[in-house]
Amino acid sequence: MRVLVRNGLVLSMDNTIGQIPGGDVLVEGGRILEVGRGLPAQGAEVLEAEGGLVLPGLVNAHLHTWQTALRAIGGDWNSADYFRNMHAVLGPRYRPEDLRVGTLVGALAQLESGTTTLFDWCHGNATPEHTDAALEGLMESGVRAVFGHGTVKPQPRPGEPHFSEVPHPRAEIRRLCRTLPAGDDARVTLAACILGPDYATLDVCRADFALAREYGLLSSAHVWGNANRLNPDGYRALAAEGLLGPDHNVVHGNYIGDEELRIIVGSGASVTSTAAAELKSNAREPLSCRVAALGGAPSIGPDTELLNGGTMLDCMRFAMQAHRIFNNLHTVAAMERGGGVKASMEVATSGSPIQVVSPTHEDVLRWATINNAKALGLDHRIGSLVPGKQADLIIVGRDSLGMIGARNPVQALIQFAQPADIRVVMVGGRILKREGRMQHGGLPRLKERFLESGERLLAGTGLG
């Protein structure tokens, strides 16, 4: 199939190609064939983008998609509420079908809002049947995804070890590696979502990192860096044993000190911040700007729709505003100390301070595209509009009443665009949203089953 996206403002997210006013993108066989102006339309379906933006599909670097059916029940929860209500009360109620329908609707919602790739961090998979149901939802949606196989965290029964002492299940990783297609043509791939140094013993960390590396998988861990972490040395200890590298992803990390953060970034590991969720209960700023100041590539995600909006449009807006607020606070504090504006940019957490600056809109769009692709180990396939890469792209209209007249294209996208402005969504050359309408069949019945799932999960809990 040959498709020509014609006459849009191309935001390639590639430093060499740059922005192309009146630009075209030619797609063939699921890949980008050419990016430029005046490309030939012979034999191609033409998608007119005049007046709109053409850019790589957004990449969501961290979402618990299995929780989608419980949207907006936890916006006023603190961290303890989340762990008690979600993991202790609601998590055990999930049936495989709940994971399937929640993941499917969640993935379709990502596509509808311009996200073409999703890191689905799934730790509600109590059985292999739950895991397979979540994967079925991803497969049906059409989204490109990294399925992060996590594990539930139940309170142990008498005689059972605590989950922090239990390594990631080798048999499940082996089974999934045999089941899921691999290679650059695979749309859904596998990652190991492990406990990490905050939630596991050092022996379990060693086993989990080794398991992921043995199977060539990205590993990812929720980490905060609080004083109560199980391994006080955190990633310093893991790096000293050669376990830390570019095949690892750190999520959150708000309390990680500068010395440890330097080790993480220096190893090539990625760091994903989820600002909207993190700032529900934490007064420490997200890590994105500190990572950037160390030469790393910040990545971002929304985390969970229990607490906040899940689209990458929401995520970009919140991340930018959060960092600007924190940097303004640093400026005020330094000026009150008489240090001037320059001193205000030094964030002294531990060791030598890291110098940070507020992000631009272009920075944040990079976080949500090529940087997020890099965090998932997919930047050679997606994240920018470059010949040879997968044809994952979106067309964003600029003529709605809420968008018209917004001058700077990147600011228009981040500050004003809504899911309704996303006119076309393409994944691997396949059009999943056309003329503003999702192409998935059977949406009315799917919505009914989705609502039924949420109502059953909440029944009798007093949480809904």
Record keyword descriptors for this entry.
eight-stranded parallel sheet, alpha/beta, 14 helices, 21% strand, nine-stranded mixed sheet
Topology diagram in text:
Layout: E1 2-11, E2 19-28, E3 31-36, E4 45-48, E5 53-56, E6 58-63, H1 79-90, H2 96-112, E7 115-122, H3 128-141, E8 144-149, H4 170-179, E9 188-194, H5 202-214, E10 218-223, H6 234-240, E11 248-252, H7 258-267, E12 270-273, H8 275-278, H9 288-293, E13 299-300, H10 312-336, H11 340-344, E14 346-347, E15 354-355, H12 361-375, E16 393-396, H13 409-416, E17 422-427, E18 430-434, E19 437-438, H14 443-458
Task: Describe what this molecule looks like in 3D.
With 464 residues, the chain is an alpha/beta fold. Helix content is 35%, strand content 21%. The protein is built from 14 helices and 19 strands. It has helices at 79-90, 96-112, 128-141, 170-179, 202-214, 234-240, 258-267, 275-278, 288-293, 312-336, 340-344, 361-375, 409-416, 443-458, and strands at residues 2-11, 19-28, 31-36, 45-48, 53-56, 58-63, 115-122, 144-149, 188-194, 218-223, 248-252, 270-273, 299-300, 346-347, 354-355, 393-396, 422-427, 430-434, 437-438. The strands form three sheets. Strands 1, 2, 3, 4, 5, 16, 17, 18 and 19 form a nine-stranded mixed beta sheet that branches. Strands 6-7-8-9-10-11-12-13 form an eight-stranded parallel beta sheet. Strand 14 and strand 15 (354-355) form a beta hairpin. Helix 6 packs across helix 7 (258-267). The N and C termini lie far apart (46 Å). Mean pLDDT is 95; it is low at 347-351.
